[in-house]
Design a protein that fits this description.
Length: 404
């Protein structure tokens, strides 16, 4: 149940309980007032009847006075026979009535006051209270729903901004959420402050990564040159391989830093996919098999496209098994190998830089897929990673058309 419905339900429940309590209290007060008035009138009438009976020996006409009335309630009759005076609200010949009785000269004298008018008045008051309570509950619930909707709307705005930040946009801000400085406004201010701090920290980390990678390029280039002067042999080859791997990692770090900072804006153009794909596969030099089912015109940047395809092919050859197939159908390009496939966490969370482990298709730094995804997003393409039903990893690059 949403917060808005919870608040509305609580307000409705509280309003109904308050209305019920008020209605019960008003009903009891009304019944007590009418009963007391009727009892006082019946007692006063009985006193007049007793006074007249003592003086004349006969009953005073009026008030439905009677001696030994067979309709008199039994409890009141027994009380009067014991010489005591009392009154009771009980049924009468014409509806509810207030009875008063007392004993005199061995007889039971009684007075009956009709209570039907009082009962109707109480019923009318109950109906009026019920209608008023229903209207007040309705108005209160509507006001509560509006207030809850406003709170819920402000919280949804904050949640959308938080999700935007979680998707990698630290520049997103909630902004002011109305005038009142309440808890929701404090939450929005806290999220905006967190976003600003995150943006500042990310910018610092990007600058640090770029500076470190840039500073490493010169000594690594010299180290690679020096390794070429070493005498041939297995140790020399190991040194050269490690230096090349470190150089490639440094270049990847620089490229990731440029992608994160957006320092290299894309310049897409409308190009036929077939020739572009053929050149990219040939430039990669991995010996992948190319199949073009249908050709199409796509909007992309050739340099970024070749970089994405080269990374996907390198990933397939490094972590998969041959044959590696590159197929094109429409504006979609698929690179598939026949290896163990992507691990579940990669399919669930997407590429993550510096992801290592035995399950990560042979280990690695995770920068190849990260760079491929970054270049794809820069030109408006979509990179989809999956495992083929027949085995192997499948990376599908969906490029935008010329009229995207």
């Amino acid at each position: 149940m949403t917060l808005r419905r919870q608040i509305a339900a609580v307000i409705a429940l509280v309003s109904c309980l308050v209305a019920l309590a008020v209605g019960v209290l008003v009903h009891q007060a009304s019944v007590r007032q009418h009963t007391d008035q009727a009892r006082a009138s019946a007692t006063a009438a009985l006193d007049s009847v007793l006074t007249g009976y003592d003086a004349t020996g006969d009953l005073v006409a009026g008030w439905h006075a009677a001696a030994d009335d067979p309709a008199l309630p039994a409890d009141l009759r027994r009380l009067a026979e014991r010489g005591r005076q009392g009154s009771v609200l009980a049924p009468g010949p014409n509806g509810p009535a207030m009875w008063a009785a007392a004993g005199a000269d061995g007889r039971v004298l009684s007075v009956r006051m009709d209570y039907a008018g009082d009962a109707r008045a109480i019923a009318d008051l109950d109906r009026a209270v019920a209608v008023g309570a229903a209207l007040s509950v309705l108005v209160t619930v509507l006001a509560g729903v509006l207030a809850a909707d406003r709170i819920s709307s402000r919280l949804r705005t904050a949640a959308r901004t938080a999700r935007t930040i979680a998707r990698g946009d630290p520049d997103a801000r909630i902004g002011p959420l109305g005038r009142p400085r309440d808890e929701v406004a404090e939450l929005a201010a806290a999220v905006d402050s967190m976003s600003a701090a995150l943006r500042s920290r990310l910018a610092g980390e990007q600058r640090f990564t770029a500076d470190v990678a840039h500073e490493l390029r010169t000594p690594l280039t010299g180290l690679l040159t020096a390794s070429e002067l070493l005498p041939p042999g297995r140790p020399t080859e190991l040194v050269r391989n490690r230096v090349r791997a470190l150089r490639d990692l440094t270049e990847d770090l620089l490229e990731v830093s440029r992608l994160d900072s957006g320092a290299d804006p894309p310049e897409p153009a409308d190009l036929p996919l077939g020739p572009l794909l053929s050149r990219a596969v040939a430039a990669a030099g991995t010996g992948a098999e190319l199949r073009i089912a249908t050709d199409a015109v796509v909007s992309t940047e050739p340099r970024r496209f070749e970089r994405v395809l080269a990374n996907l092919l390198a990933n397939a050859h490094r972590h998969g098994r041959p044959p590696v197939l590159v197929s094109a159908e429409g504006t979609a390009v698929t690179v598939r190998d026949h290896g163990p496939g992507y691990p579940e966490e990669v399919l669930r969370e997407g590429p993550r830089r510096f992801r290592t482990g035995a399950r990560e298709r042979g280990g690695g730094h995770g920068l190849g897929l990260t760079i491929a995804q970054g270049h794809a997003e820069a030109v408006g393409a979509r990179l989809e990673l999956a495992n083929h039903p027949d085995g192997g990893a499948s990376a599908r690059l969906v490029l935008p058309g010329p009229d995207h």
